[in-house]
Amino acid sequence: MRDYDSEEPAMYALVVRFDLKDDASAAGFDQLVKETGEGIARDEPGTLVYATHRVDGSPLARVFYEVYRDREAFEEHERQPHTLRFLAERDQFIAATRVEFLAPATSKGLPADG
C-alpha cells in the first residue's frame, strides 16, 4: 500500500468530462482529439494511459482517463505542441468541462506502485 505522504514519485491521474455543444462540435472535437492522441502516442513515454471515451446515452459527452508516470510526466504532457494546440482549440466545441484529479490506489494494468 502506498504511503501518500512519502517523497517517492507517484502516478498522477485524472478524469475529464467534456459536454459538447452540438453534433457539429462533437465532430470537430473528435477530430482534434484524434490528432492530439497521435502526438501523445508518438512523443510521450511518461503518459501511461490516455483513453478517450464516448458516453452511452449521452452522444455529446466525452470522458478522458489519463494516467501519467508522475506529476512531472503530466507537466511535460501539458508543454507538448499537440497538447497546447488541443487546449487552444477545444473551447469552441465545449459547453462544459469537469476535471477530477485522482490518487490511484488499486488497479489492474497499471505499473505496480510497490
From TrEMBL:
It holds the Pfam family ABM. The keyword Magnesium does not apply. Residues 12-101 form the ABM domain. Gene3D superfamilies: 3.30.70.100. Keywords: Monooxygenase, Oxidoreductase. GO terms for molecular function: monooxygenase activity. InterPro entries: ABM_dom, Dimeric_a/b-barrel. The keyword Oxidoreductase applies. This is Antibiotic biosynthesis monooxygenase. It comes from Amycolatopsis nalaikhensis.
